[in-house]
Design brief:
Bound molecules: zinc ion
Structural class: mainly beta
Shape: globular
Helix content: under 10%
Oligomer: single chain
Strand order of the largest sheet: 7-8-9-10-15-14-13-12
Strand content: over 45%
Order of helices and strands: EEEEEEEEEEHEEEEEE
């Protein structure tokens, strides 16, 4: 169900595809627009994304095996030696997922809500160590492949939470033996978000436009 929001800065009509969207970035003037309780707040300008060639593009149709999706938002994170993009995508049923693209490495993940996973402590875990996570009702062993600090540097499109430019946090990437992926983002206030999914072969993602 699509809705139109007028940019509070340039008055452009912006298409909002998801009811629960919290943040819109105007594609014309890059105003960062926070949406809450029916109100529209202009948070100033968002840094423009330097458009490097990318496997995904905002607003176009893509397919991974039988799953069809459209990228509707993107957040870029800098980890010091480079950056990666988290694409917020919507499928034909209106469900959303995240497609993480770090050069040729692609994972499709969903935000996890399992309280058992949420009760785990990741602050002291190191690269090479293992922990069990529940994914698709199965307890699987995951090994930490990366533990780093990153910074949000830019965003575009439509996103389910407020993007705070320059916000920094620690994250842990984990991998299971059968290619399941997990990402844990750990924020300064002690909260964390867990995303679970799977690594995919970039050649299995096809443009349908
Ligand atoms: Zn605008």
């Amino acid at each position: 169900m699509s809705e139109t929001i007028n940019c509070p800065s340039c008055a452009a009509e912006l298409d909002k595809k998801i009811n629960s969207t919290k943040h819109l970035i105007c594609e014309y003037c890059f105003s960062s627009i926070f949406l809450e309780d029916g109100g529209v707040t202009n948070l100033g300008k968002m840094a423009e994304l330097i458009d490097e060639p990318s496997i995904l593009k905002l607003g176009l149709d893509f397919e991974y095996r039988d799953w069809n999706f459209v990228p509707i938002g993107r957040v870029r994170y800098d980890y010091g030696r480079g950056w990666w993009d988290e694409w917020f995508v919507m499928d034909t049923t209106g469900e959303t997922k995240w497609v993480s693209v770090d050069e040729g490495h692609i994972a499709i993940e969903e935000k996890d809500t399992n309280p058992e996973n949420a009760s785990l402590y990741f602050d002291s875990i190191s690269v090479g160590e293992s922990t069990n996570l529940i994914i698709d009702d199965e307890s699987l062993s995951f090994t930490v492949t990366e533990k780093k600090h990153c910074k949000c540097i830019a965003a575009e499109g439509e996103l389910p939470f407020q993007i705070i430019p320059d916000e920094e946090f620690d994250y842990v990437d984990l991998l299971s033996k059968n290619g399941k992926s997990a990402t844990v983002e750990m924020f300064n206030d002690g909260t964390k978000d867990i995303f679970l999914g799977t690594w995919v072969d970039p050649f299995d993602i096809k443009a349908c436009y």
